[in-house]
Design goal:
Chains A, B: GO terms for molecular function: DNA-binding transcription factor activity; transcription cis-regulatory region binding. The structure is a homodimer. Chain A is built from twelve helices and twelve strands. Chain A is an alpha/beta fold and about 325 residues long. The radius of gyration of chain A is 26 Å and the shape is elongated. The structure holds a DNA duplex (16 and 16 nucleotides).
Chain lengths: ~325, ~325
DNA sequence: CTGAAAGCGCTTACAG
DNA sequence: CTGAAAGCGCTTACAG
């Protein structure tokens, strides 16, 4: 696979490589005779020339490559985010290189190093617990970085989040205004601030409320979600609950919980009301339409790319954080 | 963001850049005094040196970048495939750059051009209808390419497929051996050979059978799957079917069909039996466990990377096609 | 209107 | 054991 270069064109056209470069890049300032232009384009066409962006990158110090680090690209939320980022990036001429951190700080660090060696112009990352140092180092060398979905305490990286605590608080208040006997919060055992925000929002609403309602928490690890949720729901909710509400703080948790409800033939919303953070196509197979909190993924992607591109080209300050609003989509699972 | 280079290290260490390069790359042949080695490593460490792979690439003609083109990275099948490819690629030191073609031949072509300009060492592609020419061109310039999931008629690109026709035929035979009154095949209106293979497998089994059973086809476009499947199932299956089998040729179709069953309270397998091609987490919210055909995604990813790496390094012939076997996972949806 | 030349950050055959 | 030098394929200020 021998590719033709600018040099080949120059030789064939009997001009210098500089001229070829000028023509191919359609620079305005330099005026080159229509004749040579035409000849150069024709030759480029016939020898099937494709520019070597690597060579260009070396000179211009821009690769037009963006690194994306998510926890796991096969996770629905992240693959949808990746898709949106891809589209927005492409519009500005960037392509995405992707890595999954598996919630592992060491792997996260390795990926940032790898991407930095590949000279990506910037990175969009969903940082994992324990990766504060890695982010700080990137900030320190002024590497353009934007966080999405998550953020880390004590590190001021520009990024996009949603109003996790607020929306959790508001939806929990809605729940409290109904007269449930019991409300169960199903969340993660985690240190990730954005997930804790959801929990704190829930708790804040509970404390502010005058209702006497039994509150229970189910917290599970990031693995074996289904099994853990099932067994804990069995303890906390039982097989024939009445007048209870379930608050799932992620779509994965919700799916696990809903499958418990299906298996035990528990009726929604007759016996149990359900609200979930995040959506998923999976809800469509549940007999009742699920009330969920919708993240503005497209807007998040758009803002992330904009913020990153701004940093890369020095438009934007590097401590800008953008908070977007999630939205409650009310459906029948809630009574 | 000024990065330090090999030159900086050389200057600081008082040696040549050649020496630094040798040390950092731990070349065996060249023996360099332990003293200078140590000094160079220390300096590299203190000035926080990271190699510029772009520069290396220009010289070595290897970027360690692989292009992945799928129809849509937010599609569950492809994001899972991407994840597996990512892992396998990383083991060989490659990173993945990703693009979604949206089943659009023009966009597919654009992505191959973009990736080729980025000098990816090879591409893993799920070709779209009408992209024969694009693939041929890549083959012609001997660009390392491997197809996954799909293939195209008349183009001999190395690639990985599964035994679509055979597994479809076998599972259909199973269906025919039961005494259903009616069997409905739900598939796509498409020219994509791998999907037609599934349909042909179904039809082959039907023709070979001596049973008299009513056979119906539902073929839908790639968009508005849910609506189309719903309305056509309403016509073909009705609201209270008996002794009927549904054969879905993809997980998306299956989800659309299952949601119809849920909505109309049709019991599986009492009234209707179900078999689906491909799995999805979504099945878990259906009251009955779904019988499905499982693609060996991990093995496909592994073979794809192996095949591509082989081409890149000239181990493998460039017309090798690998066919892996899908497996029927029998569950309760089938009686 | 066009070209010679330097340089981006590396690698590597060659010489000593 | 180490270095000078060429070169990968581009871009771009400068000169003419």
């Amino acid at each position: 696979m021998k590719r033709s270069s600018i040099k080949d064109i120059a030789k064939l056209a009997g001009v210098s490589v500089a001229t070829v470069s000028y023509v191919l890049n359609r620079k305005e300032g330099q005026r080159i005779s229509e004749e040579t232009r035409k000849k150069i384009f024709e030759i480029a066409e016939t020898i099937n020339y494709t520019p070597n962006k690597i060579a260009k990158s070396l000179k211009t110090n821009k690769t037009k490559l963006l690194g994306l680090i998510v926890a796991d690209i096969s996770n629905e939320f992240y693959s949808l985010m990746a898709r949106n980022l891809e589209d927005k990036a492409l519009k500005l001429g960037y392509t995405l290189i992707i890595g999954s951190s598996d919630e592992n700080a060491e792997k996260f660090k390795k990926l940032t190093e790898l991407f930095s060696q590949q000279q990506v112009d910037g990175m969009i990352v969903a940082p994992v617990a324990g990766s504060e140092k890695t982010l700080e180092n990137l900030m320190h060398i002024k590497y353009p970085v934007v966080t999405i979905d998550r953020y880390l305490k004590g590190v001021t990286v520009p990024g996009i989040t949603i109003n996790n605590q607020e929306i959790a608080e508001n939806t929990t208040s809605l729940l409290l205004n109904k007269n449930f006997d019991k409300i169960i919060y199903i969340g993660y055992e985690t240190e990730l601030p954005h997930l804790l925000d959801r929990q704190h929002g829930f708790e804040k609403a509970v404390h502010a409320s005058k209702k006497t309602v039994e509150i229970r928490h189910i917290l599970v690890g990031l693995e074996n979600i289904a099994e853990e949720v099932h067994s804990q729901l069995e303890n906390t909710l039982g097989k024939s609950p009445e007048n209870t509400a379930l608050y799932f703080s992620s779509n994965k948790l919700a799916v696990a919980g809903l499958s418990y409800l299906v298996k035990n033939n528990i009726k929604v919303p007759e016996q149990v009301s359900v609200i979930a953070f995040d959506e998923t196509e999976t809800y469509h197979l549940f007999p009742t339409e699920i009330t969920y909190i919708q993240q503005p993924i497209e807007a998040m992607a758009e803002e992330a790319i904009k913020l990153l591109d701004g940093q890369i080209n020095n438009y934007t300050a590097t401590e800008k954080r953008v908070t977007l609003s999630a939205k409650l989509i009310a459906k029948a699972s809630f009574k």
